[in-house]
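Data availability excerpt. The first of two example chains:
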Amino acid sequence: MDTLGEIPGLPGLFVAGIFSAALSTVSSGLNSLAAICLEDFVKGIFYDKLSDEKATSISKFLAVGFGVISFLLVFVAEQLGGVLQAALSIFGMIGGPILGVFTLGLFFPWGNSKGAFVGTLTSFVFMFWLGFGTNIEIAKGNLVIPKLPVSVDGCPQANLTIQSFPKQGESGGVLEFYRVSYMWYSMIGCTVTILVGLFVSFLTKFQDPRELDPNLISPPIDRLVRFLFPEFRHKILWDLGRKMRDAKETINRSSHEALRKQSDGVLNKAFDYDHTETKC
């Protein structure tokens, strides 16, 4: 726009291209949300059998509903500061708990379904409270994060280290917690999910690693634990799939025993038949 803005018609073409790209992305996202909601919730929970006509109508209403919600979120995004801060904050609030539940399932064989569900839900609630609470306090003026000076005009030649910077706005209580940078949101959400998930799992009969399929746990982590803690791993029940292997061996022995008895019975009958024919 700054370079070719003088050419007639080019600014309008540029704006039209931006709007076309944005609308195509938004329309595909809304239709995907409507289709997933229709298949997983409407058909999966409420109505098992839907005609194509009703399914199409419900999908359209869902798309409109998600569009309205997206429009209302514009007013929320307005209070989130810059584009980079808003994007990283939202990604941290949503991506952190999701990363945590995957980490819980891949690296911690004691976690169960209840722990994963409660941990993820708790992390979502906590991170949304932290993210939106921070931005609400910033909008109210109670929390002001000053920008650090970057100019070097008038600085002495020697290098100086400033130990602390003056804070602006109110301080103390929850506001001090709101000063956590949005760059930490992903790690905080992931950590809360893992800790709460393990805590709830141990309260609600944790998953016995010996009964777990070893393919469900990250193989490098399994080999690392076996290598670093050869003795201690038995105390924490880190013997993935041992009971499954024992059960398979028992079934195999039973099957072989049954086949052996069956084959012995057939051979005995054949021997008795041959012996009878010989007497005759």
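And the second chain:
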Amino acid sequence: MPESRDQWTQFDGCREGMNSRYRCTKFRRKVYILFVMLCGCLCFVLYSFAFTCCAVTPAFSRSARLDYGGNVDAIYDDRLLYKDAHQQQNLRTKRETTLENSLHYRRQRRPQDINEMYSSEDGENPSQYDDDVRQADDKPAKSQGATGMLKTTKNATKKLPNAIIIGVKKGGTRALLEFIRLHPDVRAPGPETHFFDRHYNRGLEWYRNQMPPTLEGQITIEKTPSYFITRDVPRRIYNMSKDTKIIIVLRDPVTRAISDYTQTASKRTGMKSFEQLAILDNATGLVDTSWGAIRIGVYAKHLEKWLKYFPLSQFCFVSGEHLISDPAAEMAKVQDFLRLKKVITDKHFFFNVTKGFPCLKKPEGSGNPHCLGKTKGRTHPKVDPKVLRRLKSFYRPFNAKLQQITNQDFGWA
């Protein structure tokens, strides 16, 4: 380090004599300009970095919420791994492409999802139904005016269901829903929502949005047959509303099992025979209770789980057989249970001999009658009488228990 004043003067860039003051001033000016330029470059770099971060974050956040179910915090830290602007630009492009693809996928997937939900239990598709009936609940709600004419109103709102048809599969749930939708005070979604067994994590607001809009005085009904045998569904429905009314369509469990098998066999090739699937050991006649078609028919066992949450007074048990042979009488019982005016009567039905099912007459006899889809009325395979007797014997104690619980004779106990 310089020790004398002369040495400090030389170190500082200034020399004695020969315009020393001018030279010293010029040198310091250059240093000052250089310092200002360095500060300007540093500010520009910091500003560019901050701008790039702000540009990346919104696109990343949107795609994270859509593609990763909203778990942004778990993914957000990976942005810190990209330290230069070029890599961040690549990240932004990738996120925006993912977002666009995700939205495009969802737009394409939604109609197929609806068809899959529709066919999940009953093997049906919305296209199989008459358009006027199938799409009725997708239109604005209507009310009955003093002149008897239907008038549209904009005061309809979507509500959680007042009643739910919980089962059973292949028992006649689709027929019941189509019949009850004739009532002007009943609204119901077309597809099975499967909220309480498959989509419960989506929340009640999602479930509410699946319902059609209703007016004051109208009720909402939903149907998903798999609810009856799903363990957590009774508790979940109770948590939604302990006043929910439960409707169950019950059918001879042996006939129901054969119908279940017939539906599955129509979609799959090379299935084993009904006898092979139902009986584990022909010598002992041991029934395979692990097979779903058999297990669903143990109605009393499933019902006991529901009675832990709902009193018997909140259940309506509909006979699947009577729904075919005398639909007006069964619908009168359902209308009483739902506290509805008896609007649906025998004038709304006529029996289709070819299909073996009742069909619906349109109001005032206009247009063609509406029958259930092509999947209804399939011809059942011939089953070994010994197997039929064994299954009836297997179900007999469970049917007796069901009759004891419900105090109702279904005719197949």
